Amino acid sequence: MYKINDNYLKLPGSYLFSTIGKKVSEYKAANPDKSIISLGIGDVTLPLAPVVVDTLHSAVDEMADAATFKGYAPDLGYEFLRQAIADNDYKARGVDIAIDEIFVSDGAKSDSGNIGDIFSEDNKIAVCDPVYPVYVDTNAMSGRTGEYITSEQKWSNVIYMPCTADTGFAPEIPEETPDIIYLCFPNNPTGSTINKEELQKWVDYALKVGAVIIYDAAYEAYISEDDVPHSIYECEGAKACAIEIRSFSKNAGFTGTRLGFTVIPKELKSGDVSLNSLWARRHGTKFNGAPYIIQKAGAAIYTEEGKKQTKDMVAYYMENARLIREELEKAGYVVSGGINAPYIWLKTPENQTSWEFFDNLLENANVVGTPGSGFGPSGEGYFRLTAFGSHENTREALERIKRL
Fold first, then answer.
1. What percent of the chain has pLDDT over 90?
2. From residue 57, how far is each of 70, 73, 79, 231 by CA, in Å?
3. Secondary element (H or E) of residue 370
4. Fewest 10 Å CB contacts: which of 4, 62, 152, 389?
């Protein structure tokens, strides 16, 4: 008789964004005359940049010609893309990353979930609280998180690092020593960042205790302040203790085309075993790359024209973030984030839980956001709004919220 992975049975409820989608669908079905504006799920809304679209068309033409047709992509990704990443995302910032330390994939979400495959089940993880649910959920699926404590909304074998107003929505070094540390800056959901000096403390700590940092830099393109690092590898010693995950979804609008990459330096080792070689083996066996057409389009954002168009896209969303912050502050809400990230972290009004505020917004303003409690216990009493919308919809949503 076959057996299932019963770790899945320990997961509470459904995935956060699936729950939101179900609630919104039910409301729309019952209220077909209502116009819903979403400032919830972090999906971009602008079309792909013209240089990307042009490249996609030309790449399709190549696939239609026997002389230029491409089949399976190389395990690590095409060299032209990995070289562009190494030169523009790292060398340009004074960081030496070799192209065989870059692994192209179908997105940061996939890599965030799949990276656990190369680690033992008995590793203990530490996560920011609140945090992007994929980190904890996928470790729960792998059996690393212990039992779920419903009354506390916590896992018994996870080290939670509270990110509250008292800590500037940034984590502090935990008292209990973890094996794997998940950090995300700019942070999802709070929009918070830390400067290079603070990030160096985490690198030094990981080197001291023998931990590995999994660093999610999906939102680095939104950084506006000079003292905020774009990569953990800007810190001394990070190549010996950190894995970095990045995405083309938020900076170049690839949410519908799917492209990302993970960097694992060759000097990152567990004893004599290179994590780079382990991930290369995993990458080759459980193929999660991206097609030639998509990788070609990804390389286009590193051209001069692509850089400008991508910068314009980021600026568009950050104008929304500025507007949300300013208008909600004027209306008396307590907000943070939105300076180095496309997320605004909003304190819910008194006597309203995050899900109660969600229902209030949906029913009385026809606006969708994301309840903070869905990101972890310290997210209760907070609410995430995203800047990924049109200027027009963002302004209309704000007017509706202010009328509550």
1. 92
2. 15, 18, 20, 32
3. strand 370-371
4. 4
